[in-house]
Amino acid sequence: MSGTLFLCGTPIGNLGDMTLRTIETLKNCDIIAAEDTRNTLKLLNHFDIQTPMTSYHEHNKNAKGPVLIAKLKAGENVALVTDAGMPGISDPGADLARECIKEGISVTSAPGPTAFATALVISGMDSRRFVFEGFLPPDKKECAFVLENLKNESRTEIFYEAPHRLCDTLKTLMKATDDRNAACVREITKKFEEVKKGRLSELLKFYEQNQPKGEFVIIIEGKSIEQLENEKAAEWKSITVEEHVAKYMLQGLSEKEAMKLAAKDRGVSKRDIYACIKKD
Question: What domains, with CATH codes, occur in the chain?
Fold first, then answer.
């Protein structure tokens, strides 16, 4: 019988957030795979956990992943922890979980705190619908794709960022989202926990004058449906009725279907559209 991979959530700042189940899991598993063994050792010492550790992080995952898979196949139970929060969120824990599932190895979780969810609920931003983007991709092409999709995003958007890159990221996001309302949340659950709210330009100005400290979660307000509809209506009004209908016909629609959609876009009747394109 194979062992089980336990994805264990650890505190994101306050050690009081460590769950009893996570402590029990870390004590009873055969080995703990940690993002940074030095950082995790402090946590283990605090809770008197003696389980042996090994490192598993972005730079050694290709070599260490197969080693951990072999241990699991041999029947050992492995607990995976990140430096803070839930493994698998913006770290290589997701890769190990995916490989275990491919190999038919059981994967479960001892859940704990997660920075983006905690930041969202204390920010006061709309939490009914949101999209978590994590860190902006380092690849320029992939980053441009992400930013392009943000322009018309109606959901609340959530990003992670390190303090030394915060101002550059705020500039980038401001250009992509038309300077929307936002919040910068830092030092979550710690003594100097802070939620700073304002437009992206206001937040940028503040952090240019006050050195950013701590890890940040950036939360950006999505566009309202009304705003999107108004922008779409303005876009359609910038072209002629004939061009509007032709745009849909180029997508493979019949003239009748294209006229119907153009009428809906412009908030007029199909008869009005017909009159415009048949007036000649």
Answer: 4-113 (3.40.1010.10), 116-222 (3.30.950.10), 226-277 (no CATH)
